[in-house]
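Schema walk-through. Below, the input block comes first and the output block second. Nothing else is stored per chain. Lengths vary across the set, and this one has 432 residues.
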Amino acid sequence: MKTFPSDFMIGAATAAHQVEGNNKNSDFWVMEHAPDSLYKEPSLDAVNHYRKFKEDILLLAEAGGNAYRFSIEWARIEPEKGFFDEKEVEHYKEVLRFCHQQQITPIVTLHHFSSPKWLISEGGWESEQTIHYFENYCRFIISELGDLIPYICTINEANMGKQIKKIMKRMMKRNKAENKLGDGEVQVGLNVDMKHKMENYYRFLGEAFAVDPRQIHTFLTARSENGEQIIMTCHQRARQVIKELRPSIKVGITFSLYDHQALPGGEEHAKNEQYEDFLNYLPYIQEDDFLGVQNYSRKVHGPNGVVSPDEHTRLTKMGYEYYPEALANVLRFVSEHWHKPIVVTENGVSTTDDHERIEFIERALTGVYQCIEEGIPVIGYTYWSLLDNFEWQLGYEQTFGLIAVDRKTQTRYPKKSLSFLGGIKRNGLDSK
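--- output ---
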């Protein structure tokens, strides 16, 4: 019987903009409603988690989960620069209290991709001012809610802007003739159709944000080196504030990490990717308490770089290779350079076949169990995602969730994978 430690956290994750609905003061809401939008559809009510969070958390708890990773939406808390909405603070206070009532450990993310609209008008994630604004936001959250938060991820996938920049360059070169980017190239739901009409879209955004369209810097914009520095400084300042106000809170950050594997001749390509994805961030996180690892698949590198999957490769609905063992490989790589606790803050699969999801969870968590047996300090696993939700620019067609949602009625339909995941926490991996 493969039984996890009694204090091991097993649960699921969400992001506010993807599940709550009506996040009208955010940059993503603006982009979703632009003419010729890159978003296939707007988020609108999403899956109404803002009002149905108790039902959703209760389903997780009843299944056997004991951890819930979710994000606090900055655009709700500070809808206008310098104005903090007490009503929204009370909402998240209620969410946190309900987690504790259900013996669910809350793992809070302070920034998960979406930002206040006003922040983008002020220069967004390429502006030095954002460091100050983020620090103020964090100070307010910790002052108001810190006594209810045991774990904080300051920023979700801090390396995503760099990954997007690399992939855009690579895919534009590779598929120039087809004017098309490849699927499964980045661990986020991007619409990568290069034929898209951009002129009206960017004109609208320029007017909406009151900036030159070339100066719109959302969190998911391809990032400069200066932008990289700004984001990591935001993390360090947030950590400083959290430790100043609530030293007991465990602070970390999350990274999007592929399992980079090398064919003969591809070793240097794989090593370069590992450095850019993770190793170059190590100096900024030395004082962190834990690391959030987020993995969905692997990338195989040959002498000329990334090798695309062939027609026989098993793929997920997102276009990733179906390869649950990637997670354990990433954990082993990370542990060579990081010797503090690790939380798997995202790992999952988009599929219409829940049996595939159950298989994915079992294989992924078997790898996690083996890593713990090897002495790697993995302390938690939160599957992505608790609910089928809004996958950013790809809209609602992706189905990662442990719970299906009829968005016309907002009725919840727990999948067998939810009880399977909870059963692992209760009874171990060999119980089905």
